[in-house]
Amino acid sequence: MARVTYVKKAQQRYRMVPVIDPETGRQATRTMQRRKPTKAGKTESTVRVTREDREQPLPPYTCDSCGKPIEVGTPYKWIQPKSGPYGGRRRNRHAGCPTWNVWDYSDSLSANVDHIAHDFANALDDVESVDDVQTALDEAADRIGELAEAKSEGASNIEEGFGHETQQSAELQETADSLESWAEDVRSADIPDKPEECEECDGDGKAQCETCDGSGKDSTGEEDCVDCEGEGKVDCEACEGSGEPGSEQMDAWRGEVRDALSVIDECPV
Q1: Going by DSSP bridges, is the β-strand pair 76-79/91-94 parallel, antiparallel, or unpaired?
Q2: Strand, helix or coil for residue 28
């Protein structure tokens, strides 16, 4: 994960301009001590001197989450994930906006796999049936298959370029095959059966009235019980009278589904 830096108050930014040495008419430079000597043994480096031009204010940073400007004086956070030997592009967000997930700034295989697992876990929050779970599995498997296809295409491109298989192309194809196998494991994973009826009322939707202990009469024994209107039974609280599995029962099933489908977290590469 890229390190997140938090800033209490955004400052006005200005364009940086070169500082001109009046003696030479060229940009001034200064010598700085290196933290570590170079391979050639150099312990110093020369850098060009710049300064803020207060007559050239820059616009505020833009939050890459909500798309709104980060106004001067407001708190914000930033990251600058490395994307090569010379660093990477800085990204900024309001302090109150969600922080970055690794897939927001990386297209690596591990980041894509984490994204798939994250979206699958979120999908399970709302499933109401085995079919819903299977749909989530199929979508995850399709995305894994796309990763496999990309790796396989990469292997083919390398082989076409060299005219023969190389170690790199073989490794890419092996990764593609492993991902494809994983996709099939995800798609065919066994889903725990969803409970068919409320376990509190056995699907009847009714429960004995506690006020009258099921008698249907009030304490005098003469009048109908006001809670069950003389029936001796009331709607089951767990399922609200539907006879279907209640919310707690469904949450327990979703938890069982999560535990059973750990295959989504078992990427083989």
Answers
A1: antiparallel
A2: coil
Its pTM stands at 0.77
Task: List the structure tokens of 144.
Answer: 């894994």
DSSP secondary structure letters along 179-245: HHHHHHHHHTPPPPPPP-S-TTTTT--EEE-TTTTTS-B-TTSSSB-TTTTTSSEEE-TTTTTS-S-
Cα distance between residue 63 and residue 79, in whole Å: 12
- pLDDT string in tens for the chain (269-residue length): 789 999 999 999 999 999 999 999 999 999 988 888 888 888 888 899 999 999 999 999 999 999 999 999 999 999 999 876 667 899 999 999 999 999 999 999 999 999 999 999 999 999 999 999 999 999 999 999 999 999 999 999 999 999 999 999 999 999 999 999 999 999 999 999 999 989 888 888 888 888 888 888 887 777 888 888 888 888 888 888 888 898 899 999 999 999 999 999 999 99
Residue with tokens 């003389």: 230
